[in-house]
Amino acid sequence: MLRHSVRFLVYLTAIFLASCKTTKPVSQPAPPVTEKTTQDTIVSEEPQTPVVVPKTEKTEENQQEKTVKKIAPPLDIYEFRAAWVATVANINWPSKPGLSTSEQQREALKLLDFLQENNFNAVIFQVRPQTDALYDSELEPWSYFLTGKQGKAPEPYYDPLKFWIEAAHNRGLELHVWLNPYRAHHTTGGEISESSIIKRKPELAVKLENGMWWLDPAKQGTQDHSAAVVMDLVKRYDLDGVHFDDYFYPYDSYNNGKDFPDDDSWNTYKNNRGELSRADWRRHNVNHFIRRVYDEIKTEKPFVKFGLSPFGIWRPGYPQSITGYDQYEKLYADAKLWLNEGWIDYFTPQLYWKINQEGQSFPELLGWWERENNRNRHLWPGINVGLGGDEKNIDETINQIMITRGMLPESKGTVHWSIGPLVKHDSLSTALKQGPYKKKTLVPSSPWLDDEAPEIPQVQTTINNERIQINWTHPDRDDVFRWVIYFKYEGGNWDYKILNGDLSSYSLQYIVGEKKKKMEQIGLTAVDRTGNQSEFKAIILK
Questions:
Q1: Could you tell me if 369 and 382 are in contact, meaning their C-beta atoms sit under 8 angstroms apart?
Q2: Do residues 131 and 184 lie in contact, with contact meaning Cβ atoms separated by under 8 Å?
Q3: Average pLDDT for residues 451-478, to the nearest whole number?
Q4: Residue 520: how many CB atoms within 10 A of its CB?
Q5: What is the pLDDT of residue 30?
Q6: CB 318, CB 253: distance < 8 Å
Q7: Closest among 432, 419, 423, 421 to 388, alpha carbons compared
Q8: Which run of H or E residues covers position 401?
Q9: How far apart are the C-alpha atoms of 229 and 237, rounded to whole Å?
Q10: Domains in the chain, ordered, with CATH?
């Protein structure tokens, strides 16, 4: 382990010095007691002074600038930590179609408990694997992967997505719904029912030679229907994000290397005097849809993040040493444009290759995407944790997380493909929790969505024997998503606890250790839905 760590540190140093500034193709794996107290200590509330963030304001009288000092929290505790939960082909959940409601819920809670216990803060849950629904929808039928028959509701009835959202939020996890916008039927998806869009709107769907069906991205009906599905979810559910992966126009292997069968829509475009080449026209169709979805989400609920997880290589030769699949030319996905234009809130290229892999090096690709991120959106790469749980593969996973932290310090984060290997390999999950995921973190803020921080909570503390009780109120507590308690013991460093937004009290050890060290300072911040954290004030315990 030490040998690998030293090699990693040398490698990482070289990166920084050089860059100052499923069933898929082989480059990607197959496709988330209250007790009475007596106040025996007087407390005083004073601001913590060492860390300040200057802010410039102008007075109405003379328009002269003045500096207002905003006291920042004593620790930077932001990092996005998510895992994909795939439902297509029952990859991750449920374990097979047709389980009872109680069995489905038990399996779901086991996965969510795992994420909570291992200090993740988000789950990316696939709710639409093939123009179907793992939730109660009037637009599309119940999923075969849920009940074993497309169109059949769970028995006894429940809404799986509502269940997942509530359970995730209760565990301090964001929930992002993951949709495939164009895949109409998967080869493992059972019988196509009369309620499928393939039967209801056959003019929108085409069949591929491997048995899959695909919606034609050029058809207005496709765009309207898929956008309506997204917005139905955004309007009716308490989501934190909407997520698309790499399936736009299908991989050419799905059609035995033949071109996508869209002659009908292409000829209509040409007959209407369209001037784009066929490839540019296909890319335009996808670009238009991505921009539309982003704008519609922001109009309805600006705090709901829109994330995209494209294939990890934009084009071979970008950067120069990169070789491999050309998503720009094959999937008609101009993922670089979406990042350049800021049509997303977070960008998760699927960088499923190793650090030292020639032609597809993880840090080389991450560095290239970072240079394209001129709108400063979140860049949280997807990594492959399916390599196994031995020492070599554990080192690879941890080193990729550390490289990401070093290269993207302003908004750290990683998305793990998928939750399955994390649960399967105890050695991998243990190494993560004992290493980079030792403490819980907040999801980084999204200042382009909202940069107004909540007000400071009003805090009262009461000490009883060796514990300190913290109670608080807040004028806008319905807008608070998380609380963070910061605390510091005699001779020690700052530490913290992240709590759910529905709490209004918490108890901590006031005296710790054999030397009976007392807590010296404590403070509480409020965090809103987009990650903004309130100003920090330390309570000095005298």
A1: no
A2: yes
A3: 96
A4: 16
A5: 36
A6: no
A7: 421
A8: helix 391-407
A9: 12
A10: 43-74+450-541 (2.60.40.10), 80-434 (3.20.20.80)
